[in-house]
Amino acid sequence: MAPGAAVSRSLKIFVGNIPWTVGHRELRNYFAQFGRIAWSQVIFDRKTGLSKGYGFIVFQKRSALENLEKKQKHVLEQSTIFYQQSE
What is the pTM of this model? Predict the structure, then answer.
């Protein structure tokens, strides 16, 4: 495992129920309000090009996760999205 891999992994979240209209930029912009983002991605179907409705965010600092947890409900383009910290 690379030296920084454990830190990055602990700051990674899975994001679900993403509206099909949301791309990488919109997902990143939403989560940037909680802290600096190292990496973000919405997963798309290779055959259809449509969003699979989920993605990932990796924050640069643990404080971003703490800020994220302070907000009870997360809504992106009128859809309630959820997140779960990855291990």
Answer: 0.85
